[in-house]
């Protein structure tokens, strides 16, 4: 009987893994994408309610991650999403009119109903980024969970550009299981990151963003 249960468990695990791999390969709403055309619509303004909070930082094995407790939120019209964490990718993943960006920050949110929403902030090479100046020296030396710095505050508003125009599309997680149905907001105005900062980041983390995925007739909306 125990052996039968083991075989059943192994079969379910294998089928689940195969389904995840199949979705990453054949899903029709995958991220990131190359935004080459979009439909302009009067989309709701993004209302960020971010404020300074003690820094919770981790090396998750792929990137530097900053996690938040309750209290940080984003409102889009009548929708409200709570900020869970942000992390970085190199290269940036989502492209605009074919332009590849060297880095992106993903700010991950969740609604009360469980809807996932990612705000993407793209970076072009230029001046030092002040937030990265703070984070890079504090990346933990090991993959051992969150490190809390009660004497260091982090404010996610530092990742927001002056202009909050955005593109919106329905996509997916960018790593297995590539779950679809994630709402993506790509801010149109990039921030800057210096070549020195990129080099320091890449000393710790290999490039970790998947390539652009086919659009498959999805609508991409653009705010004014």
Overview of the structural elements:
By secondary structure, this protein is of the alpha+beta class. The chain has one domain (29-222): Carbonic Anhydrase II. It has three helices and 15 strands. It has helices spanning 2-26, 130-135, 195-204, and strands at residues 34-35, 39-40, 46-49, 53-59, 64-67, 73-76, 79-89, 95-96, 103-111, 116-125, 147-154, 166-172, 180-187, 191-193, 221-222. Strands 2, 3, 4, 5, 6, 7, 9, 10, 11, 12, 13, 14 and 15 form a 13-stranded mixed sheet that branches. The longest helix has 25 residues, at 2-26. The N and C termini lie far apart (63 Å).
The separation of the N and C termini measures 63 Å
* CATH class wording: Alpha Beta
- CATH homologous superfamily classification: Alpha carbonic anhydrase
**Sheet with the most strands, sense and barrel status:** 13 strands, mixed
Mean pLDDT: 91
Which radius of gyration do the C-alpha atoms yield? 19 Å
List its salient traits.
224 residues, alpha+beta, Carbonic Anhydrase II, 13-stranded mixed sheet, 18% helix
Sum this structure up briefly.
Helix content is 18%, strand content 37%. The chain contains three helices and 15 strands.
Fold topology:
Layout: H1 2-26, E1 34-35, E2 39-40, E3 46-49, E4 53-59, E5 64-67, E6 73-76, E7 79-89, E8 95-96, E9 103-111, E10 116-125, H2 130-135, E11 147-154, E12 166-172, E13 180-187, E14 191-193, H3 195-204, E15 221-222
Parallel strand pairs: 1-8, 2-15, 10-13, 10-14
Antiparallel strand pairs: 3-6, 4-5, 4-11, 5-7, 6-7, 7-9, 9-10, 12-13, 12-15
């Amino acid at each position: 009987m125990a052996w039968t249960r083991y075989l059943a468990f192994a079969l379910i695990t294998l089928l689940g893994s195969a389904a995840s791999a199949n979705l990453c390969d054949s899903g029709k709403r995958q991220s990131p994408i190359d935004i080459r055309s979009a439909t302009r619509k009067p989309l709701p303004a993004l209302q960020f309610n971010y404020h300074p909070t003690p820094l919770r930082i981790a090396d998750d094995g792929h990137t530097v991650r900053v996690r938040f407790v309750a209290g940080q939120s984003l409102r889009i019209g009548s929708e409200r999403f709570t900020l869970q964490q942000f992390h970085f990718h190199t290269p940036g993943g989502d492209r605009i009119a074919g332009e590849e960006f060297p880095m992106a920050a993903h700010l991950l949110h969740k609604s009360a109903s469980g809807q996932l929403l990612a705000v993407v902030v793209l970076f072009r090479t230029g001046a030092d980024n002040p937030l990265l100046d703070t984070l890079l020296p504090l990346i933990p030396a090991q993959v051992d969970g969150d490190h809390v710095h009660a004497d260091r505050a982090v404010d996610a508003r530092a990742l927001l550009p002056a202009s909050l125009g955005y593109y919106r599309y329905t996509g997916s997680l960018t790593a297995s299981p590539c779950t679809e149905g994630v709402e993506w907001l790509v801010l149109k105005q990039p921030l800057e990151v210096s070549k020195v900062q990129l080099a320091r980041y890449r000393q710790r983390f290999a490039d970790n963003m998947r390539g652009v995925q086919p659009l498959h007739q999805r609508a991409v909306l653009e705010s004014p």
